[in-house]
């Protein structure tokens, strides 16, 4: 199993790499757009702010390479948000635009601090190969202050006073808002499912 | 909603876990990586590693050790100890840590919180606050890892926590040092007072000695997580038993 991890200076790729290696994957880390078209599958991680991440992807010439990629692509955490069109973060950011909609702030409230930080249950909206072997109600670990729009792409979601799309899919693109690399057995299963998607 | 987090804290000195009473008189509690793996398997929701000597001795922590822990764990973990620049914090994350916690260096230079939040995202930035009751109010202390270096920081706890939040902290760990290591329960009054004023997650620390102390922290102070050390290291409380107990008392936990 070969997987290409985009290392573009926005976030923590070590823990994603270690999780993939625990599953026996061969991981290549790159920031070179020339490596993308030939990749078997690509993971786009990300921690931090959307505007900064897009600036990095644009500067490295990765934006168009990711848009054109036709095999399985998985955005993790901020990487899921980047799949959408725009984000309110950083005063408004244009993103990859692979899935329709706008990313908005998590709404905080009593007993609902923001960031949404911690383990929440997955509610499953529809079947998807990424969710094979994952039951409704399993726990995964979230850390985020912005939330993707709920729509036809939503495969699974968490309830945090609002619907938090947790797994999304559109064509060959998937996203996980939570951190599968830090979500114990459930997260490992989802990463394994991604590695086994036909490329 | 999120499950209430149970967070074992490993105070680390040279790769060994140590624990003292009121931060003094450290006792060896075992190998840090072995204990971390045990807590992972028992259902800990997150781990915190404090290099307790790093800050007073003016050194930072060992990045290759952070990387070894990151390979081992499939749950989130936070590292702390002597991190005083954005570059050091970034290196911890580059080596696989999920969050970094800063304490004394943030008191010396509060802008560090903002710099870290802007570069790394506020969700990675935990501000640890050591608080003691003194002259009728809760006050912040620094360098609490070393009894000889420890001193008051000249700030009121609530003022400092609100300042840290507005500067960009993503989470506060409030360690009530009057309670630390004495197992008489978390400082519910202080935690509640802080919780009411914060919009970011709050983690309780200091004083856990029995399962009902955790229940009270979640039920009465509404904290997101409860951190404890000696009760877990000594085996006095097993995490699976604690979670079963909390679940039976209506607290949502990850089981």
Automatic annotation (TrEMBL), chain A:
Catalytic activity: 5-[(5-phospho-1-deoxy-D-ribulos-1-ylimino)methylamino]-1-(5-phospho-beta-D-ribosyl)imidazole-4-carboxamide + L-glutamine = D-erythro-1-(imidazol-4-yl)glycerol 3-phosphate + 5-amino-1-(5-phospho-beta-D-ribosyl)imidazole-4-carboxamide + L-glutamate + H(+); L-glutamine + H2O = L-glutamate + NH4(+)
Its EC number(s): 4.3.2.10, 3.5.1.2
Keywords from the named record: Amino-acid biosynthesis, Cytoplasm, Glutamine amidotransferase, Histidine biosynthesis, Hydrolase, Lyase
Active site annotation, chain numbering: 77, 179, 181
Pathway given in the UniProt record: Amino-acid biosynthesis; L-histidine biosynthesis; L-histidine from 5-phospho-alpha-D-ribose 1-diphosphate: step 5/9
Superkingdom as given in the UniProt entry: Bacteria
Main subcellular location of this protein, as a coarse class: cytoplasm
Domain Glutamine amidotransferase: 9-195
Localization per Swiss-Prot or TrEMBL: Cytoplasm
Pfam families xref list: GATase
Task performed by this protein: IGPS catalyzes the conversion of PRFAR and glutamine to IGP, AICAR and glutamate. The HisH subunit catalyzes the hydrolysis of glutamine to glutamate and ammonia as part of the synthesis of IGP and AICAR. The resulting ammonia molecule is channeled to the active site of HisF.
HAMAP family named in the record: HisH
Assembly notes: Heterodimer of HisH and HisF.
Protein name listed in UniProt: Imidazole glycerol phosphate synthase subunit HisH
Organism in which the protein naturally occurs: Brevundimonas terrae
Name of the gene: hisH
TrEMBL record, chain B:
Catalytic activity: 5-[(5-phospho-1-deoxy-D-ribulos-1-ylimino)methylamino]-1-(5-phospho-beta-D-ribosyl)imidazole-4-carboxamide + L-glutamine = D-erythro-1-(imidazol-4-yl)glycerol 3-phosphate + 5-amino-1-(5-phospho-beta-D-ribosyl)imidazole-4-carboxamide + L-glutamate + H(+)
Taxonomy, superkingdom: Bacteria
InterPro entries, per database record: Aldolase_TIM (IPR013785), His_biosynth (IPR006062), HisF (IPR004651), IGPS_HisA/HisF (IPR050064), RibuloseP-bd_barrel (IPR011060)
Annotated TM spans: none
Alphabetized Gene3D superfamilies for the sequence: Aldolase class I
Catalytic residues (positions): 11, 130
EC numbers on record: 4.3.2.10
Pathway(s) the chain acts in: Amino-acid biosynthesis; L-histidine biosynthesis; L-histidine from 5-phospho-alpha-D-ribose 1-diphosphate: step 5/9
Chief site of localization: cytoplasm
Entry's localization field: Cytoplasm
Pfam families per record: His_biosynth
Cytoplasm found in the keyword field: yes
Keyword ATP-binding: no
Keyword terms: Amino-acid biosynthesis, Cytoplasm, Histidine biosynthesis, Lyase
Family listed: Belongs to the HisA/HisF family.
PANTHER family: IMIDAZOLE GLYCEROL PHOSPHATE SYNTHASE HISHF, IMIDAZOLE GLYCEROL PHOSPHATE SYNTHASE SUBUNIT HISF/H IGP SYNTHASE SUBUNIT HISF/H
Described purpose of this protein according to its UniProt entry: IGPS catalyzes the conversion of PRFAR and glutamine to IGP, AICAR and glutamate. The HisF subunit catalyzes the cyclization activity that produces IGP and AICAR from PRFAR using the ammonia provided by the HisH subunit.
Description of how the protein assembles with itself and partners: Heterodimer of HisH and HisF.
Record protein name field: Imidazole glycerol phosphate synthase subunit HisF
């Amino acid at each position: 199993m070969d997987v290409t991890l985009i290392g573009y200076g926005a976030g923590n790729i070590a823990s994603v790499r270690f999780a993939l290696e625990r599953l026996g994957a061969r991981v290549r880390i790159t920031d070179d757009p020339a490596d993308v078209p030939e990749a078997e599958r690509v993971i786009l991680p990300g921690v931090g702010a959307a505007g900064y991440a897009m600036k990095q992807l644009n500067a490295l010439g990765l934006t168009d390479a990711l848009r054109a990629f036709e095999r399985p692509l998985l955005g993790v955490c901020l990487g899921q948000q980047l799949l959408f069109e725009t984000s309110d973060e950083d005063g408004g950011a244009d993103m990859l635009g692979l899935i329709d909609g706008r990313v908005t702030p998590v709404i905080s409230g009593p007993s609902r601090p923001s960031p949404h930080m911690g383990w929440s249950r997955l509610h499953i909206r529809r079947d998807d190969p990424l969710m094979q072997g994952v039951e409704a109600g399993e726990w995964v670990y979230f850390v985020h202050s912005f939330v993707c729009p709920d729509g036809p792409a939503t495969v699974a979601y968490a309830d945090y006073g609002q619907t938090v799309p947790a797994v999304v899919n559109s064509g060959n693109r998937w996203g996980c808002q939570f951190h599968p690399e830090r979500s114990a057995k459930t997260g490992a299963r989802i990463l394994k499912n991604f590695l086994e998607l036909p490329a | 909603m999120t499950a209430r987090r149970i967070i074992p804290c490993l105070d680390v000195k040279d790769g060994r876990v140590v624990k003292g009473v009121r931060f003094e008189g450290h006792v060896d509690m075992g190998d840090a990586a072995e204990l971390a793996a045990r807590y992972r398997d028992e259902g800990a929701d997150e781990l915190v590693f404090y290099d307790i000597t790093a800050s007073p001795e003016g050194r930072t922590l060992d990045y290759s050790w952070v990387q070894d822990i990151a390979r081992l764990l499939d749950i989130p973990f936070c590292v702390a100890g002597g991190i005083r620049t954005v570059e050091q914090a970034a290196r911890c994350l580059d080596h696989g840590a999920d969050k970094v916690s800063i304490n004394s260096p943030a008191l010396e230079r509060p802008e560090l919180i903002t710099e870290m939040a802007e570069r790394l995202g506020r969700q990675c930035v935990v501000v640890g606050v050591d608080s003691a009751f003194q002259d009728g109010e809760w006050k912040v202390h620094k360098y609490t890892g070393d009894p000889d270096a420890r001193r008051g920081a000249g700030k009121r706890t609530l003022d400092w926590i609100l300042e840290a939040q507005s500067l960009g902290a993503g989470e506060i760990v409030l360690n009530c040092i009057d309670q630390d290591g004495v197992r008489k329960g978390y400082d519910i009054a202080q935690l509640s007072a802080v919780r009411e004023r914060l919009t970011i997650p709050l983690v309780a620390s200091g004083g856990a000695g029995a399962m009902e102390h955790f229940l009270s922290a979640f039920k009465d102070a509404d904290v997101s997580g409860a951190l404890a050390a000696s009760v877990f290291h000594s085996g006095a409380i097993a995490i699976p038993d604690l979670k079963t107990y909390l679940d039976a008392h209506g607290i949502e936990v990850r089981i």
